[in-house]
């Protein structure tokens, strides 16, 4: 298969330099309209493409993969998370799946830290108030939030992004705690002054802020369910920049409304782009439109990773960011 003739179908608009390079290197079909592919369009694309460049908005499930032609060799996801792809089925069909880890770590950690700062300090309420022209003058007991320094931050998922959040949070005086499948290396724990909790339940009960930074897998679906949310302190906050499915959104909304939880900062949702209406309009909840990795630099680097993965694969080598089902 010559590199020039490799048919690459890209499901969404990517930054200009990325699209330009993809066109230079391969027989690339772009999605000028940028409308997310329907299941039928995805099925049609996998029936023709040698390589599919997908994003979080593509549901590449077993039914779509069943339409894949023999020629489909690679699904190169533009993104770190691959929970939109049935990786197991793809690999069983001999299709390689790659992603773009590492290049969006700092950007996602920045937005996580922004939420960790903004929710307890009520920044969004302040902004809304100013925009509504309702600032009548300073008062000693007005707009009081909660101090960060000295509080406990519990990070669920201590991978690259979790560690980057910990580094930032440490600088703000937060004490770092974490729950992970296994403890991180000793020198990282020491650098971060981080405490490992084998029991998520026990950690949750003691944290002031909980940050979700783990991938969505069958094992993490609704990890923060109603029972676990109830374990948390009523003055605690939850921040989620990972995947909406890790939290039972309805249970979260209920807990906040009933005063069992102090608030939340969410960049991701269970059924994007839908947002649970019970979360909208709550004064102690900040909602963002899945923009954790949305920097120009990050998105170009994600695109470069996609290109490197395709090119390496096309040249007959193992692409650097191959996703192995056992890792999920
Ligand atoms: C991406 C993300 O923008 O990389 C991820 O997993 O959640 C986002 O930051 C999105 O997934 C692009 O496909």
Name its key features.
seven-stranded parallel sheet, five-stranded parallel sheet, Rossmann fold, 2 domains, 328 residues, binds 2-keto-D-gluconic acid, alpha/beta, globular
Describe the structure.
- There is one protein chain.
- The chain has 328 residues and is an alpha/beta fold.
- The protein folds into 2 domains: 7-102 and 296-327, NAD(P)-binding Rossmann-like Domain (Rossmann fold, 3-Layer(aba) Sandwich); 105-287, Rossmann fold (3-Layer(aba) Sandwich), CATH 3.40.50.720.
- Helix content is 34%, strand content 14%.
- The chain has 12 helices and 12 strands.
- It has a 7-stranded parallel beta sheet, with helices on both faces. It has a 5-stranded parallel beta sheet with strand order 2-1-3-4-5.
- It is globular, with a radius of gyration of 21 Å.
- The structure holds 2-keto-D-gluconic acid.
- The site of 2-keto-D-gluconic acid has 9 residues, from loops.
Q: Which small compounds were modeled alongside the protein?
A: 2-keto-D-gluconic acid
| Structural class by sheet pairing and helices | alpha/beta
Named CATH topology of the largest domain: Rossmann fold
Question: Superfamily at the CATH H level of the largest domain?
Answer: NAD(P)-binding Rossmann-like Domain
How many helices? 12
Rg, Å, rounded: 21 Å
Please count the beta strands (DSSP E, at least 2 residues each): 12
Oligomer: single chain
Overall shape: globular
Which residue ranges are poorly predicted, with pLDDT under 50 across at least 5 consecutive positions? none
